[in-house]
Amino acid sequence: MDLYNYLKRIKNGNNPAYGAVIKAEQITQTTSGTKSSQISKTASLMGGLAANGGFREPPPILFRRRIEYFLTISKIQNVVDGMVLDITNRKHFFKDTTDGGKGGAYSKDLQLMERWEKTQVQLSTFFSEMVRNWLINGTHIVSPKDWMPLQLRSINAKLRDDDGNTKFYIQVINGVEKPIDASQFLETHYISIDRGAWGVGLFDSIMNDQYVDVDGRQPTSIAQIYRQTLQDHGKIIHKYANPLSIYMPMDGETVNQETIDNDIVPLIEGMKPGDRIVLNKRLEILQESIDGKARFTEYTEQINDELETGLQSSKNRLITKPSAMADAEEAGEQDDDRILGIMDQITIFMNKSVIHAVLGIDAGFIEFQWGEKDEFHKHIPPHIREGLELGILQPEEARQMLQEKHEWEFLELDNNNQQLLDDRMANQTMMLDDKEKKANQEALQVAKETKEDLTKRTILLSQIEEQLAEIK
Question: Which of 106, 131, 141, 213 has the fewest CB atoms lying closer than 10 Å?
Answer without folding.
Answer: 213
